[in-house]
TrEMBL record:
Keywords: FAD, Flavoprotein, Monooxygenase, NADP, Oxidoreductase. This is Flavin-containing monooxygenase. GO terms for molecular function: flavin adenine dinucleotide binding; N,N-dimethylaniline monooxygenase activity; NADP binding. InterPro entries: FAD/NAD-bd_sf, Flavin_mOase, Flavin_mOase-like, FMO-like. The keyword Oxidoreductase applies.
Length: 236
């Protein structure tokens, strides 16, 4: 008997879960509240209100070497860090296994759970995942009289609206840094504001190896050396 597995959400984690279930001979059913899979990787020029959204130029933070499926390597001619529009190469196996526009309301054990081990998934059609924007406007005295425009990065899509204008980007996370760089090509001046300093790393190392892969290898080397050092200290 094949076991059915409910997966809530068709974003990156949900799609990886589908793949793992298929590898183990399980029957996954993915419930996705929006009308498409891909989660934050899926660009929409006009996103639904209160739904998480990305800008057009978003580059996926993980390299293709780190994010590819174990038995489906991404094409060699694709860039190490892919544009969000290339996400379809990772989704081909999952679209038929997803129930779109389906929100999971609750998951509970069946009355005979002690014998069957089964769960009941209660769903609702036509609902979406909501995000809550972090805009602490109270930290900016005088914002109510500001004559310019201010908004969350969720509402940023392309730089053309800001051509030849002065812009300040607050925050030096992935979104803030990428948006700041993109705006610098068309604006009169861009300021990038951050509460503390930050290390800025290239996506690729000196030898062309993706930095996330390089850091992972260094991490394993450090764990190996730490184990050898500890063993040496204990034995001596």
């Amino acid at each position: 008997m094949t076991h059915r597995v409910a997966i809530v959400g068709g974003g990156a984690s949900g799609l990886a879960s589908i793949k793992c279930c298929l590898d183990e001979g399980l029957e996954p059913v993915c419930f996705e509240s929006s009308n498409d899979i891909g989660g934050l990787w899926r660009f929409k020029e006009n996103p639904e209100p209160d739904r998480a959204s990305i800008y057009f130029s978003v580059i996926i933070n993980s390299s293709k070497e780190m994010m590819c499926l174990s038995d489906s390597p991404i094409h060699a001619h694709f860039p190490n860090y892919m544009h969000n529009s290339l996400i379809d190469v990772l989704l081909f196996f999952s679209i038929l296994l997803a129930k779109l526009n389906t929100k999971v309301l609750q998951v509970k054990q069946k009355s005979d759970f002690s014998h069957s081990g089964e769960w009941v998934v209660e769903t609702e059609q036509g609902c979406g995942h909501h995000c809550y924007l972090n805009m602490p406007l109270h930290d900016f005295p005088g914002i109510e009289t500001f004559q310019g425009k201010y908004f969350h990065s969720r509402d940023y899509k392309t730089p053309e609206e800001w051509r030849n204008k002065k812009v300040i980007v607050i925050g030096i996370g992935n979104s803030g840094a990428e948006i700041g760089v993109e705006l610098s090509r068309v604006t009169k001046q861009v300021y990038l504001s951050t509460r503390r300093g930050a290390w800025i790393l290239n996506r690729l190392g000196d030898n062309g190896i993706p930095i996330d892969l390089e850091l992972m290898l260094l991490h394993f080397v450090w764990l190996f050396l730490k184990f050898r050092i500890m063993r040496f200290m204990v034995e001596n």
